[in-house]
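User: Hi! Is it possible to get a structure for several chains at once, not just one? Here's what I have:
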Amino acid sequence: CISCPDPCGTSLCETRNGQTNCSHCEPITLELCMNLPYNYTSYPNYLGHRTQREASVSWESSLFPALVQTNCYKYLMFFACTILVPKCDPHTNQRIPPCRTLCVQSKERCESVLGIVGLQWPEDTDCTQFPDENSENQTCLTPDEDVEECSPSHFKCRSGRCVLASRRCDGQADCEDDSDEDSCGCRERGLWECPLKKLCIKHTMICDGFPDCPDMMDEKNCSFCGKDELECVNHECVQRELWCDGQADCSDSSDEWDCVTLSKNMNSLMFLTVHRSAVDNHVCADEWQENLSQLACSQMGLGVSTEENPVIQLQQGGPFKTEIVLVDGEMQHQKWLNLHSDWKSKNVSTLHALLVNGQMCRSRSKVALLCTKEDCGHRPAARMNKR
Amino acid sequence: ILGGRTSRPGRWPWQCSLQSEPSGHICGCVLIAKRWVLTVAHCFEGRENAAVWKVVFGISNLDHPSSFMQTRLVKSIILHPRYNRAVVDYDISIVQLDEDINETSYVRPVCLPSKEQLVQPDTYCYITGWGHMGNKMPFKLQEGEVRIISLEQCQSYFDMKTITSRMLCAGYESGTVDSCMGDSGGPLVCEQPAGRWTLFGLTSWGSVCFSKVLGPGVYSNVSHFIEWIEKQIYIHTFLMN
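Assistant: Yes, the chains can be modeled jointly so their relative placement is included. Here is the combined structure:
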């Protein structure tokens, strides 16, 4: 006893009731049959599949696309789809069968081809179950002249034969007239070509925040941000000063990613670095506490802080707001952040939201941490039995 | 799992069962952190409401709950925004539990690979689950050893679908060991140096596993999704409270 489809409500079917009176029209989602002259189907189909998902992984869903490549019958794919995703009558919500002639001709022309490779025609396709074309009391489906002979997963050769779409432009001729290797540029195929690698992607994938080209060129030059702005991963522009302020300003929150990191210095100590306003800052150790170390480690996706004394005392200089350091041979001002004076009462979940700039670091110490990764992937040791 | 064997209890401590009433076990899932679980997006088709789900850990026999079992409710379900049900691409989702699990020898997280860490063809890995065995649904967790297959070779088995870089194939041409209905969302793990087990795949789709057409199983390629997983966990932990 299984749940009826949504239009019937969510109550369980009564015993023996099965899915009677549950039939409804639903949009066709089966990739193989997306180019039919109808868009709605009704389940179960004529092969006994209860859902389109079940149909999509069925033996028949593999069989028919393979068989159609043999060019055994022009309307084989149309027939296959009328039994995999039967047309739904919007008035009665009932499925409309293929006509018997279509079934008979498909079987007559293609069954023998299957026999050559030792396979059998699907058992559930007994053509006598389908009505005759001239039947007065039942409608049935026949192909129009202009029906698509190939499924969306296939490429139609100039000769009319269907070959797998994945074999188009693969450098090897699969159509007898080599037409599957013609016009192989992305543009000719309605796709966009990654500039450096000859990879074709859909136009909808350009500037959508997910890199698809190996060099990420599909996500470049997607926005024109002002001088004081930075580009979010989804290509919105956000004020530089709002970067890593503890509040998500990009709608994908990317201005708040990777705000807290650890940077090595020459002694291999890991200094805590906060990327406030798109500039890396050290963190002054004034008032630093153990729970802040734990928060920092956790924010970096690392387990717990293992450093008992995470504060590094600097040797020279007085209380400072900036420190001059050598970066790639150039003198640069290294900025500092301090804990907010009332950080303990602030209700925030990130470390960087507790920090402010422009204050003196009285202790002249910066925070350094050692975080350990949480344990993973270990199975308990096998138990030993004395024999 | 087809062609597998019953697992010793506790052997796969990251395996969990995604359950919903009245059916009980619907899909497998994998513990990756104290409050986070991975599974596939198609498990939630028509059931995206977090309130109808619970996640069971530390269980071996679905019919006999043990004292090692832990159950958590689901706080939120994060489906991959590019998940496409028609072609079963980007089939991955993250589940946030309502509270942390207690780590025991029966309930432990698996390691995640890095973005660059790819499993090589011909590597032998393990799949686990309570899915169909070909002749019956098991009560006890099953395990099976499968071989990683290159995407090119895998494409040759599946005429009707495109095998994308978001997918990983594993199994055998003859389909002797394969995942099956009910294993979805469960782990494909490979042993790494120092005896660490790393999650490279999540059971996603394949041919009808006990039909005449066999071939390998197709798994969501976890390495491909690492950055997305990390960002989502960060956003939901630190930015959404």
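Chain A has five helices and 20 strands. The radius of gyration of chain A is 33 Å.

User: Great, thank you!
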